[in-house]
Design a protein that fits this description.
Helices cover 45% and strands 11% of the residues. By secondary structure, the chain is α/β, with parallel strands linked by helices. Strands 3-2-1-4-5 form a five-stranded parallel β-sheet. Helix 3 packs antiparallel against helix 4.
Length: 144
């Protein structure tokens, strides 16, 4: 099996980039790696839709933004398909990791991607490569 060849952005990273003033470390991290394949999970799109509806009091004010996101990432939104489900099976039910996070981890494993998230410990519990873009500048630079 080959090593990680791109990045899978977790929901928290996509939400951060959407902010009016995203954290500079996150922006810098992504700009420095724009030469890599950068993907998102269809599950992150669903989580962002849910968060947008909750933040807007049940209305779908974020629908236009999600449409733009889906358009911008066209071809780079990864589904939960049979192969991801099979990679997820040994991760399912981990007591410290949500089902959505373990499915995102399985997506990363299936596509040989490193997860970019603030929740690196949760992904590392599943033995999946993960990096926290909020912390990269404070530690040794990531090989990815």
């Amino acid at each position: 099996m080959r090593g990680p060849s791109g990045l899978l952005l977790d929901t928290d990273v996509v939400a951060e980039v959407r902010r009016a003033e995203p954290h500079p470390a996150v922006v810098d991290f992504l700009q420095r790696r724009r030469h890599l394949g950068i993907y998102i999970s269809a599950l992150s799109v669903a989580e962002l839709h849910l968060l947008g509806s909750q933040d807007a009091g049940g209305s779908d004010d974020g629908g236009a933004w999600l449409g733009e996101l889906a358009s911008r990432f066209s071809g780079f939104i990864l589904p939960v398909d049979l192969d991801v489900a099979m990679a997820w099976a040994p991760m399912a039910g981990h007591p410290d990791v949500t089902a959505v996070d373990s499915l995102i981890a399985a997506t990363a494993v299936q596509h040989c991607l490193t997860i970019v998230s603030r929740n690196v410990e949760g992904y590392r519990k599943l033995a999946v490569p993960a990096i926290d873009p909020w912390q990269v500048g404070q530690f040794a630079e990531s090989p990815v």
